[in-house]
Each structure stands twice: as C-alpha cells, then as structure tokens.
Amino acid sequence: MQQIENILTSQVQKVVEELYGLENAPISFQKTRKEFEGDITLVTFPFLKAAKKKPEMVGEEIAHKLMEIEPKVVGFQVVKGFLNLSISDEYWKSILAESLKKENYGWQKANETSETVLVEFASPNTNKPLHLGHIRNILLGYSVSLINEAAGNYVKKVQVINDRGIHICKSMLAWQKYGAGETPESSEMKGDHLVGKYYVKFDQVYREEIKALKEKGMEEKEAKAQAPIFLEAQEMLRKWEGNDPEIMKLWEMMNQWVYDGFEVTFKRMGVGFDKNYYESDTYILGRDVVLEGLEKEVFYRREDQSVWCDLTDKKLDEKLVLRSDGTSVYMTQDIGTAIERHKDFSFNKMIYTVGDEQNYHFKVLFLILEKLGYSWAQNCSHLSYGMVDLPSGKMKSREGTVVDADDLMEAMFLEAQKQGAERGSYEGVDAKLQEELNEIIGQGALKYYILKVDPKKRMTFNPDESVDLQGNTAPFIQYAHARICSILRKYEGVENVDIHKAELDTYAKGLVKLIYDYPEVIQLAAQESSPALIANYTYDLVKNFNHFYQNSPILSLEDENLKALRINVCQSVAKIIKSSMSLLGIQVPDRM
C-alpha cells in the first residue's frame, strides 16, 4: 500500500501539526484487518501524549480534518488507537486503469542506477543426471533471477559445473571396464543417464569388493580404502591431474555426453544461463589470492606448511585454505571463483543457490572475502534451501534410487494427460494442442508445488497433490486464468460505457486492492529471494477472484457500465496471473 501511504503520510502530517503542534510526527500505517471497515489503518497512539485526549477522540479529530483536505478519504472507523480509513472508489478505479494500461504492471525497467545481481544455481556434477534435489535448486535460482529482473535489476545467471574429482573418475572407470563401448546413440539413452548408469555400476562393484575384503578379516574402513576398483579410480584421478592424453580424451567424451543430456533437461524446464564455469578450470583459482593474503597476514601458516584463516574473533573456527602440499581446497577455489565473477560481471550482489548443508561454508566464504578487502562480499548472500523428500522417503544417488528429473517431468506430463482425459477437458481439441496443454499443466504443477514453499523449509513433493485442480496448486491457478479468458471471449462490448458511473462491490474492490499490492510483492520477493511470496500472492488473488466470480454477475448484467467495470477487473486479474506465474517460470493456458 506504499503509494496511498505516501499520499496520506504528508496529509496526516499537516493535520497533526495543525491539531496538536506535532512536527515530524512518527506516522505509521498498516493494512486494515478484515473484520473492520476501511482500506488502510493509521496508528494514532503516537499522537495521544501531545493531544492529551482519549484515543477515540483523537481518531475522530484526525479523520474529520483529513477528509476536509484529502478527497481520496471518504469514510472512517475508530477502533481505540487505530483509525481505519476508507479510500474512494475513484482512487481504486484509477489503480485498475493503471494496471490495464501498463504492459507489465508492477515490473520495473532496469536503468543507469540499477544494480547487477548475479545468481548462481544448478551447479550439477557430471557423473549423474539431474534429480529432484537439483529441480528445487534450479527452479529457485531461475525464479529468483526472473523476480530480480522484474524488480528492475540487471541479472546474470551462472552455474559451476563440477566436472572433476574422484566421483567423475568412478563413472569413467566403470564405463571403461564394463561399458563395452556403449554410447548414447547405441544405447538410445540420454548421455547424462548413461554416465549415471556407470556411476551406479561402480558403487555396486565397490560394495561387493568391500564385502569380500571384510569376509577375509579386513576392517571396514581399511576395506573401503583397499578395494581394487577404488584404488583404480584414485590412479585414474592422478592420471587426469597429470593430463594423461588417454584419460583426458575419455573425460572430454563422457563429459560432453552429460552436457548434451543436461541441455535437453534445461530446455524442457525452460531455464538457461549467461555463463557456465567449470570446476576443472576454477579449481586452480584462489591459490595466488591466498598467498597474497598470507603476506598481508589475513592468513597464517602452520608448522606443517598448511595455510589457515583464523575466524575465532567472529565466533567461528579456523579454516583451512591451502593444504600442507600447497594444493587447494573447495574454499580456495570458491574464493577465486567469486573474484573471477566480479571481474567478469562487476556485480553489486551475488546470490548462491545452494542447499542448507552448506550454510557454514558460505558464512566463512563471505567473511574471508571481506578480510581480503573485497567490499562487495558484504552483498553476497546464500539462498539456503531445505531438502526435498518424496512420500516414500529420501533419495540415494549411489544406489540408483534417486528421482530422476527427466522421469519426474515426464510423469507430471502423463498425470496431466490422465486427469485431463478423466475430466473430459479435451473433447474436440486436436492432439497437438492437447500435448501442449499437458506439458504446460504438468510443468506448472511441478514448479509451483516446489516454489510455493518457503525455500528455507524442508519439503515433501507429492506428485498427486501437485496436479489437483483444487487447493494451492498451479492447475487451480491456471484454470482460473482459462476461465477468465473464456469470459473475455464471450464479452461483446458496447460503445459509450462509463465505468465511473458504476460502483465497485466488495469483491471487486478486494481484487483491485490485491492488484495494487503486486508491485510491492515483487520488490519484497526480490529482497528476500523468495518465489514463495509470488506463488502465495497469486493463490490469494485467484481465491478472491473465485469469490468475485461466484457473487458478482458479469455477462448477465444489463447495466453496461457495471459490466464493463467488472470486465476490466477480469482483464487485470488475468494479466496479473499471467505476469506473476511467469516469474515462477510457469505458463498459463487460455483454455483448459
């Protein structure tokens, strides 16, 4: 309610100065509670001492004076120290007109004063396909990117692809030993699925070898370290680090299979990136920065020659940044990568979309960057999110029990298809359009169900609930949009209508007030990196539209002025639904 608050603040200031001699009085507004009359509430407690009167009398005095100088205020109700003000229909109609006039109502255009926000998300490993956990990460990061753009920022979307290390060598080795030259083409499998198959194969063989060694009397810890296939994987990693031509060729081939597979998944999800960073490049970054920091006494060296950062003054631990042999750790490369990104994009803010198990890591990273003198580190943030479970429990990638992202998207498509057929929604609709609708509804159900939850909360994804046409789901919202489009197609406008001659009923006015809130919701969602604020705002808008639809006749009206006004309300609601859902990466169909 910022716009009307700004108008009323200056007017209330004049009133309390005239009535009580108060200059620069603390003026506070809040939304009027549903059980009371009014649109916006002024808190009058701060004026009581100067007025030396009871709260009810102060409220009435302010209200009467305010109505004399501000035509937008047309009524009031005093409830103790709260003054509930009613705003004129004409003001709300002007808001409605503004929402219809602007192409993207509520969105801000980036300009020369806008900030550049860099958002990191996805960041998969090249030893397995994307799974349900990645889906939450990707949907959050991409939606936060869209919301920041709508809030008027320049946005850059990046990911770090984890394409090196022992886990990558496990897939490579298993394919080398058991793959018999199998390729994505020969197997008719997506490349990331094929590589993931051999990651699971490695673990199966590894477990069998550990079991055999334990049966011979070896302790489990030693058996894990001495299993032949694990020793072979370690040797392959050493060869990779030594740029062995044969191993590098194998690594490049299998990684490309995975990249090609990821691209198919990203395309179906409707996401993309401005730049990919690769861990095989970034793992060497940061080492020189640490050595410079050592000279500046930001870090210190221990007797074994390892390098550490002492953060005990910040009530954190000491953090290793270089091993005793001079090699980097993850913190080292994250320091280097952050600095590299700032060179690439000169960002004002950077948002890391990473699970909550890394909360401590990012707290340390940002502090170290600050200690190194990078002022922009204060504007780095961690979009921490909880794990995604299924009704059946947790996922385990090594055992091949993960919920594959591609399989889940296909399952959502099929569920949308099934429910559409059961409802008889596709009678007379050609097969191609049916397929498009099923994809829009299935993808929307998946995205919305995940994004409506506060990112910080652990969640359970229930595919059956997500496609329900009732409740807080994407199909519920998509159906409302399709219903409005159906109304608009049937409307036959007449000339010389005047919506100013028609009154906003309670239901229409409630909708316009929600439309009015939309720009603020976008800004708040950007500030808090929370797509859930957009999702739940949209759900509230649709619930209120349904009350309006059930209680306020539209097409059957004989009063053409009132009909036109209610059609305008429908048009604006449809526009906001489409806009807000697009910020979640979700399409809304014109018919269902």
Features:
four-stranded antiparallel β-sheet; single chain; five-stranded parallel β-sheet
* Mean pLDDT over the residues: 94
- Molecular shape: globular
Content of β-strand: 5-15%
Q: Uncertain runs with pLDDT below 50, 5 residues or more?
A: 394-400
- Terminal Cα span: 34 Å
Question: What is the strand arrangement across the widest sheet?
Answer: 7-6-5-11-12
Structure classification: alpha/beta
Largest sheet at a glance?
A: 5 strands, parallel
Describe the structure.
With 592 residues, the protein is an alpha/beta fold. The chain has 22 helices and 14 strands. The chain has helices at 2-20, 48-51, 55-69, 89-101, 132-150, 166-178, 184-187, 191-215, 220-226, 228-241, 245-269, 279-282, 287-295, 330-345, 359-371, 405-423, 431-451, 463-466, 474-490, 506-528, 531-551, 560-582, and strands at residues 29-31, 40-43, 73-79, 82-87, 116-120, 154-161, 275-278, 300-301, 307-310, 318-322, 349-355, 380-385, 388-389, 459-460. The strands form four sheets. Strands 7-6-5-11-12 form a five-stranded parallel β-sheet, with helices on both faces. A four-stranded antiparallel β-sheet has the order 1-2-4-3. The longest helix is centred in the middle third of the chain and has 25 residues, at 191-215. The chain is globular. Mean pLDDT is 94; it is low at 394-400.
